[in-house]
Amino acid sequence: MVWINAVLQGVLLGGLYALFAAGLSLMFGVMRFINMAHGDFIITAAYLLLALVTGFAIHPALAVPLVIVALAAAGYLNQRILLNRVLGKDILPPVLVTFGLSIIIQNALLEVFSADSQKLQAGWLDTASFKLSEDLAIGALPLLMFLAAVAVIAGLQFVFYKTPLGRMLRATSDDPEIVPLMGGSNAHIFAIATALASVVVAIAGIFLAMKTNFDPAAGPARLLFAFEVVIIGGLGSLWGTLIGGIILGVAQTVGAQIDTGSQVLAGHLVFLALLVVRPRGLFPKT
Amino acid sequence: MSNTNLSRRGFLRTSGAAGLVTAAGGLASPAIASPKPIRIGFVSPQTGPLAIFAESDRYTLETYAKAIGDGLMINGTKHPVEFVVKDSQSSSNRASSAAQELIFDDEVTILTATSTPDTTNPVADQAELNGVPCVTNDTPWQPHFFGRGGNPEKGFQYTYHFFWGLEDVISTFINQWDMLDTNKVVGALWPNDPDGNGWSDPKLGFPPVVTERGYQLVDTGRYQNMSDDFSAQIAAFKDAGVEIVTGVMIPPDFVTFWTQAAQQGFNPKVMQAAKATEFPQAVAPLGDRGDGLSVEVWWSPEHPFSSTFTGQSSADLAADYEAQTGNAWTMPLGFKHSLFEVTLNALQRSEDPTDPDSIAAALAATDVETVVGHINFANGPVPNVAKTPLVGGQWHMEGGKPVLKIVENGDHPEIPLTGEMKPIG
Asked: Domain range holding A47?
């Protein structure tokens, strides 16, 4: 029974990891853009929600869409004004610029929100759970996170493969030099991609705010798992990101069941093993 | 060579002094008329994951700047005092270079540092290496003393430290378990970091004392910090029927565990999370789930001590802090204050407040009542260390706000109880 429990909790944890990684996967897939500040953007979204709900006493049902819209707008402008300038053949400038952004964001959050560890109280949702048997229970919040991850991935998949916008995004991803010849604007499309990724970042931040305590320095710790998930799933594959998240989550919980000390290590080992067997990930698209 | 014992440092000091004498000869006398300013270097983690420990820094420094005014009277001469503050950015490497900058660029008279081994150890190491007196606190004394390779026979020459130790937190925590009626099965949450490894040490840590005092320990092993899932531990605790959970956890891990425990239907009677629940800012976001959590208490407004420098009692200090900053009092506040109490006290007693050896001698002879208790480095468990009292506390929700009650004072009955230990739920 403990093993079933470990796998079940691992799958739910995988939803959280997929949610953290989906934005990264999107930017990686479309722009070959490695965003080192991804984790800090998630923390920023968490703080924004916290500020709206506890600071300005805005109802969460209104605050959540506000955060999503704010992040999408910020993502669009950030790409248009700053990040497009460093985008090119060399992958180093974007890494350096977003690394700098990461430090700036952390210190700005520290100035505004202080170093206090924060959490958004979700009331009954925090501790609610569905009891399957004496030893098995599924937390309502982890389940909600998992469903959100599936919905986000399905939504992105739809946008990418069923809409004109998705066609432009895929075209730009395939050949950014030809798209302008057809009347498309790379700068605009890249910014749209970042805005989409920022929507996912906002959703991840909203769940992070409810899941556990966060502080201005909590972002980078989220980045490593997100990278692993993207690599396991395969570059550019959205469903791969979900599968990657689940693999990492299950590896961690099953590893912890064997020995609690090896929880994080087990995830890294599975990641390494997959790199050896399939260097391009499970479902590479590019 | 007639003097074969001449060390490198001794040589530098002698030749430096000779150089000074030569320079003074050329400069004539007015330099003697205005006393040399005393510079106090202070390193603390103002940014980064440990920044919560430094919230009261600014208030404390302002308090002292005001109290000192235009100078400190030492041996009948008024010496101006300057504080030079450096941020460790919560990194031990940065703390080390901050200490070097303070020693070589700012040429401080004395170094001070607080909060966790990552700050106090590198700063004290630099001080010892370069012959600068140093006072530190807010790190349990074993990780500080032994973490720096201290020898209990010899001790250190320039560096002094005061705080409680592992033996105190073990005693306090187990005393708290004794206060409630339980099945005496204890689950441990000790991470794979210096704290977790120290607390779980099979010889010096919790395990031998836990067994000796009649409790059964369920330890699932050293987990990694920043874990996103504790279902393995929760399953093991439920399986063993654990009613008491004890640990030293970082805030995000504790909240992940505590939330997941509720979701999985695991409800212990006692939950002790050192580090994670030491601050009201960390307990408040838990809401009602924060009620009944227990933690060790190193300082509180109820501690029956007063500052020898400003005359404030613990209660006065906390009240003034809350009035000035609008923040709730936190335990580091008392320790930040006492750090400069001990420092300034030593400077005032030193024969020559510009001479490192003279200040170190005064530090060694410290015997002062501070806002965190009596400090005397001669009576410590090892040389250069003085111990401060530790009692047990529990968070009680009063009007929707977490209030830290002192519920256990077995080792230090001079500190009054302010509440009664209750089981969670």
From this structure: 2-277
